[in-house]
Amino acid sequence: MRGVAWLVCAGALAFAAGALPSLALFALSAGMVIMVLGAAGTVLLARARLRAERSVVEREVPEDLPVRLRFELRLPARLPARVQVRVARRAWAALGEDGGVVELPIDRRGAFRVEASRLRISDTLGIFRLHVRAGEPEEVLVLPVPEGGAHSPPARGRSNEHTEPDGLRPYVPGTPVSRIHWLSLARGRGLHERRSAPPPTGLPLVVVDTSGDTDPRAVDWVARVAAGEVLRLSRDGGCSVLLPGDATAATVSDEESWRALHRRLAVLDARTASAPPRPGGPTTVIRFPAGLSLGPPQPPLPPDVVPARRGGGGR
């Protein structure tokens, strides 16, 4: 349409040049026609000779960082054409003569497929524009950013100074002084020593519950808080994690198991509650608290990015 508008303007100048008459207007009209034809030839030649390749730099990124796309372009030397790539609904990023790296903000966790990117070829004045596609569909995984907010596991034992007599036993000679319960002596109950309860067995258990969460933002909150809790516990010696739909808990105790769990949290969705946890170590249940603000709505996905079909909690 821009080329047509330029030709219409050139025709109007030619008509004015004949009506006046004016040689200068006629020369200007002819120059505009030549410029439009040159721009059209440049864009057509660039489209025919362009070789464009695209690749995804990282297949896994946290949700607070953009997905980076690398483009490699090959165009005839000294051809006055420019190439742009669409990164938003109405935003285009310019590429250099050899290509470059473009950031594509997704801003939400999940599995996505980046379709072939749309490139726009134009002359330097922007008179003519043509569109081509570059790249093959590629999948990326946007990981939830670990954050705090989960309740800490219940304490492993009560404070020594608040231990009631049923947690005591009569003093036995030779008991270390540190275990004597002086408060019972002060109460007139005689000399007692503290009776230590056996420590709980098993690793701390994190139960992730998304049942009833119909809003994706609530599931996002659960995924982020669960990631933060599991990451903290994994660095403190490990934990077990029970995701929605799982019959048994997965153990997270090193970097490899943490990364596997982090990927599963990236595709966490609203599902039925997990199987009841077995008694053992302290348990933390992570669910979206009623009344908590969901925050702003999720931003729209960039063009040429669509959700990928994956299991919401599958291994």
Automatic annotation (TrEMBL):
Residue stretches spanning the membrane: 26-46
Keyword Transmembrane recorded: yes
Composition-biased stretches (Pro residues): 296-305
Superkingdom per UniProt: Bacteria
Basic and acidic residues bias (residue ranges): 158-167
Protein name: Uncharacterized protein (DUF58 family)
UniProt organism field: Thermomonospora umbrina
Annotated spans, Disordered: 144-171, 272-315
Annotated keywords: Membrane, Transmembrane, Transmembrane helix
